[in-house]
Write a structure and sequence with these properties.
CATH architecture: Up-down Bundle
Order of helices and strands: HHHHHHH
Largest sheet: none
CATH class: Mainly Alpha
Radius of gyration: 24 Å
Helix content: over 70%
Low-confidence stretches: 183-190
Strand content: under 5%
CATH topology: de novo design (two linked rop proteins)
Structural class: mainly alpha
Length: about 200
């Protein structure tokens, strides 16, 4: 075998091993995104479990506000269905978009519930309502942190998949860029659900 053949073989092996390493890195980063979504999923389920209890406590005081309470439950059910779809496919941009839309509707419904509840001193004084509100606020914070971790993993993956020469492997094996969560498009979406009792 000639020297040129050895050099060609060595270069070919270097390119092959680099491509395998780049592929494995992209797979690892993609799995980190799925894991980060799993952390969001845990917190969303916790919130979805708290909401019916919150509504039941409020129902005693807000009997004539049934429409508001029903809107919260309907938004919760829609968000939960979107969450289950997204959990089955955490890298699907359409499922994540539907989840974000459902979450925005739920946030709006909860905001209306708390705005109505502000007018009822007995409800504000209810110990169970205060405890549930504190748990909900704590869960909202955890969701925020989990979304930030998710977005950090998405950013790392997208950067790796878009930079040369890894870009070649990403395109060859269809590693599409991922969408970030919790992006806002207007001021209304940036407002935090206020929980105060």
């Amino acid at each position: 075998m000639s020297t040129a053949s050895w050099i060609f073989l060595a270069v070919g092996l270097l390119v092959f091993f680099w491509a395998v390493g780049a592929y494995n890195r992209l797979v690892r980063l993609k799995n980190a995104i799925a894991n980060a979504f799993g952390q969001i999923d845990v917190q969303l389920k916790r919130r979805y479990d708290l909401i019916p209890n919150l509504v039941e406590v409020a129902r005693k005081y807000l009997a004539h506000e049934a429409q508001t309470l029903e809107a919260v439950i309907a938004a919760r059910n829609q968000a939960r269905a979107a969450e289950q779809t997204a959990a089955g496919s955490p890298l699907n941009a359409g499922a994540l978009g539907a989840l974000m839309g459902a979450e925005q509707m739920l946030g709006g419904a909860l905001g209306r519930l708390f705005a109505v509840a502000e007018a009822y001193p007995d409800l504000k004084a209810d110990q169970t309502m205060r405890e549930l509100s504190e748990e909900l606020a704590s869960t909202e914070n955890r969701i925020g942190f989990a979304r930030q971790a998710y977005n950090d993993h998405v950013l790392e993956f997208n950067n790796a998949a878009a930079q040369f020469p890894t870009l070649i492997v990403a395109r060859l094996f269809n590693f599409a860029t991922q969408s970030m969560l919790a992006s806002t498009t207007n001021e209304l979406e940036r407002q935090v659900v206020k929980v105060s009792f």
